[in-house]
Design brief:
Keywords: Membrane, Transmembrane, Transmembrane helix. It is built from 6 helices and no strands. By secondary structure, it is mainly α. The chain has one domain. Helix 2 runs antiparallel to helix 3.
């Protein structure tokens, strides 16, 4: 077993792990949101809250590890794609963090209705294209960097 841990420590790319974490969590949160809408089951909606809290916590890890990788692997090159990823990360943090805060402040909003329910769902559904674009730009960078080496 110690050999596996050494290998993980040598090859771990924190940014890739943190970024893919959110790329998996947010679509799953939307799936549970749709299940809650369809079934009315409060446990599905509660799962959404748990997933978006974890995602909110992971966005800064992804952001700062991405900035670190940008500075070390790309020498801090001033390409528009890096700045797009930074802006998209900030937008993602605001959207998912806002949804989590709204849900925590108004625990019954999903089943009580009202304007906060629509803001909550709007934040969550708006986060999906942001995650897709972050993954798209990340893929472009990863494959271009791989081809440069």
């Amino acid at each position: 077993m110690p050999g596996i841990f050494k290998d993980i420590c040598k090859t771990l790319v924190l940014h890739a792990v943190a970024a893919h974490f959110n790329n998996g969590l947010l679509p799953a949160a939307l799936l549970f949101l749709l299940l809650a809408l369809n079934s009315g089951d409060p446990y599905f909606e509660r799962t959404v809250l748990h997933l978006i809290i974890i995602a909110t916590c992971m966005v800064p890890v992804s952001f700062f590890s991405g900035v670190h990788d940008w500075r070390t692997k790309f020498n801090g090159g001033r390409a528009p794609v890096f700045y797009r990823k930074m802006w998209l990360s900030a937008i993602l943090f605001l959207l998912v963090g806002s949804a989590a805060c709204i849900r925590l402040i108004h625990p019954g909003l999903f089943f009580d209705g009202g304007v906060f329910k629509w803001i909550y769902m709007g934040c969550l559904f708006s986060a999906l294209p942001v995650v897709v674009m972050l993954g798209h730009y990340g893929g472009k960078l990863a494959y271009q960097w791989k081809n440069l080496k």
